[in-house]
């Protein structure tokens, strides 16, 4: 399972708008379909490696892409067959069907399979689950190699509904831009490997996939405070805050203070068990404050969160600290990153609906904070609508303490100055890269070691 790095993501409505903009700028929708069909044909040609190909065409424009691909594959000498659910229903699809000179079989229980099945049935146009009788027919092809055009037929391309396709794809060819279903659970695994076909659509990157991790080297004139000073506040469970502090140091901070703990995981971290949190908050060198890891809800946490908010410092709020800060988050603009997992998000934002992308964007707009909505399909949302989807992450991160490490990485990136959204994206990228480096058997402590 993989998706291209730093690739645009468009909802179905945004995709239609982008296609309409192409038409205004001189590229007709029929030309876009020809480009899309050519991309499908190229991918199918490589996947089939000379074996026969069966293209399943639906009545809409996704089926039109399939007819174009069939015509182009036939000119290459491929053994290609076409089967359709019905006659085309759109003008573009009708024109594409007219360009295919071969026979068209029916999609029914008598349809013979082929080594490669191209799923061009519905794509992004589906508004309800596939009917049971069609799902049963398609289920007979489940043991074949499957190439899905845009999205596997049977899923909601916007990721708001959890329908699952009867044919899980080995490869999905996204046309023009990725769709939310490619990067969100539960549908993303059903897309297999996602490839992006640039077909001339100018898709903006307000929503995009995680960029490639680039390690930034400190400037020659850097010192520990220019690299960022992070203040981590430890609660009753100091082990979690210790992970956070160590992660901040490993992720590039130049100076880390662990306040409220007698011991620090590294000698380079300043542990201050008796120091007043408020006194440290007054230090002008503090570039970011992290509070929440290992700190249960209660009056003590509320008091310390209030002090952190009053300080005006850039903040990373995790776990129960998110709930404690919610009433005041949108009052005064500040650089703030929230790092909730699924349960914490549901508790903090119970009235938000739609896909995970929709909910993350709504939470960011409501709080005026950057939201790192954690999970296997982590999304990072900014108040201005920017969003990065980090699918696939690393399954080895599904273990205790890794969220505390991510909070520390967010603190390190935030303490450097600059945009809070960029800091959160960099922290998530660092977190996933660390997990990939370690691999099987990962425990949270491994993320902060050499």
Automatic annotation (TrEMBL):
Residues 207-450 form the YjeF C-terminal domain. Gene3D superfamilies: 3.40.1190.20, YjeF N-terminal domain. Residues 15-207 form the YjeF N-terminal domain. Its EC number is 5.1.99.6. Signal peptide: none annotated. K(+) binds at residues 62, 119, 153. It holds the Pfam family Carb_kinase. GO terms for biological process: metabolite repair. One of its GO terms (molecular function) is ADP-dependent NAD(P)H-hydrate dehydratase activity. (6S)-NADPHX binds at residues 61-65, 123-129, 150. It comes from the Bacteria. Keywords: ATP-binding, Isomerase, Kinase, Lyase, Metal-binding, Multifunctional enzyme, NAD, NADP, Nucleotide-binding, Potassium, Transferase. Its cofactor is K(+). It catalyses: (6S)-NADHX + ADP = AMP + phosphate + NADH + H(+); (6R)-NADPHX = (6S)-NADPHX; (6R)-NADHX = (6S)-NADHX; (6S)-NADPHX + ADP = AMP + phosphate + NADPH + H(+). Binds 1 potassium ion per subunit. HAMAP family: NADHX_epimerase. PANTHER family: ATP-DEPENDENT (S)-NAD(P)H-HYDRATE DEHYDRATASE, ATP-DEPENDENT (S)-NAD(P)H-HYDRATE DEHYDRATASE FAMILY MEMBER. NCBIfam families: yjeF_cterm, yjeF_nterm. In the N-terminal section; belongs to the NnrE/AIBP family. In the C-terminal section; belongs to the NnrD/CARKD family. Bifunctional enzyme that catalyzes the epimerization of the S- and R-forms of NAD(P)HX and the dehydration of the S-form of NAD(P)HX at the expense of ADP, which is converted to AMP. This allows the repair of both epimers of NAD(P)HX, a damaged form of NAD(P)H that is a result of enzymatic or heat-dependent hydration. Catalyzes the epimerization of the S- and R-forms of NAD(P)HX, a damaged form of NAD(P)H that is a result of enzymatic or heat-dependent hydration. This is a prerequisite for the S-specific NAD(P)H-hydrate dehydratase to allow the repair of both epimers of NAD(P)HX. This is NAD(P)H-hydrate epimerase. It comes from Sphingopyxis italica.
């Amino acid at each position: 399972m993989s998706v291209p790095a730093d690739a645009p993501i468009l909802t179905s409505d945004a995709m239609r708008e982008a296609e309409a903009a192409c038409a205004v700028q001189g590229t007709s929708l029929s030309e876009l379909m020809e480009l899309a069909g050519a991309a499908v044909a190229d991918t199918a040609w490589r996947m089939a490696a000379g074996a026969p190909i069966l293209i399943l065409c639906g009545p809409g424009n996704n089926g039109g892409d399939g007819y174009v691909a069939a015509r182009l594959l036939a000119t290459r000498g491929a053994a290609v067959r076409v089967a359709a659910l019905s006659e085309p229903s759109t003008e573009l699809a009708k024109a594409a069907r007219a360009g295919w000179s071969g026979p068209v079989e029916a999609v029914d229980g008598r349809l013979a399979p082929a080594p490669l099945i191209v799923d061009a049935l519905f794509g992004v146009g589906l508004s309800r689950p596939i009917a049971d009788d069609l799902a049963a027919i398609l289920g007979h092809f489940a043991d074949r190699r499957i190439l899905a055009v845009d999205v596997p037929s049977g899923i909601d391309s916007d990721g708001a509904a959890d329908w699952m396709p009867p044919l899980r794809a080995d490869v999905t060819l996204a046309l023009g831009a990725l769709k939310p279903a490619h990067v969100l659970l539960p549908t993303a695994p059903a897309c297999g490997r996602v490839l992006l076909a640039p077909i001339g659509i100018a898709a903006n990157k307000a929503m995009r996939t995680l960029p490639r991790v680039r390690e930034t080297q400190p400037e020659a004139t850097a010192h520990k405070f220019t690299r960022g000073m992070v203040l981590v506040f430890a609660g009753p469970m100091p082990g979690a805050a210790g992970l956070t502090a160590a992660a901040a140091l490993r992720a590039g901070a130049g100076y880390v203070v662990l306040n409220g703990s007698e011991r620090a995981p590294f000698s380079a971290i300043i542990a201050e068990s008796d120091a007043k949190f408020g006194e440290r908050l007054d230090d002008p060198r503090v570039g970011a404050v992290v509070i929440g890891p290992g700190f249960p809800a209660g009056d003590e946490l509320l008091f310390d969160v209030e002090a952190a908010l009053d300080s005006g410092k850039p903040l990373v709020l995790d776990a129960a600290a998110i709930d404690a800060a919610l009433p005041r988050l949108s009052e005064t603009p500040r650089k703030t990153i929230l790092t909730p997992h699924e349960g914490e998000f549901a508790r903090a934002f119970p009235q938000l609906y739609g896909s995970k992308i929709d909910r993350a964007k709504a939470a960011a707009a409501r709080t005026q904070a950057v939201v790192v909505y954690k999970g296997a399909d982590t999304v990072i949302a900014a108040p201005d609508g920017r969003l990065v989807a980090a699918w696939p992450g690393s399954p080895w991160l599904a273990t205790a303490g890794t969220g505390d490490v991510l909070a520390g990485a967010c603190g390190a990136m935030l303490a450097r100055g600059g945009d809070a959204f960029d800091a959160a994206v960099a922290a998530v990228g660092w977190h996933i890269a660390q997990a990939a480096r370690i691999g099987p058997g990962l425990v949270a402590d491994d993320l902060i070691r050499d």
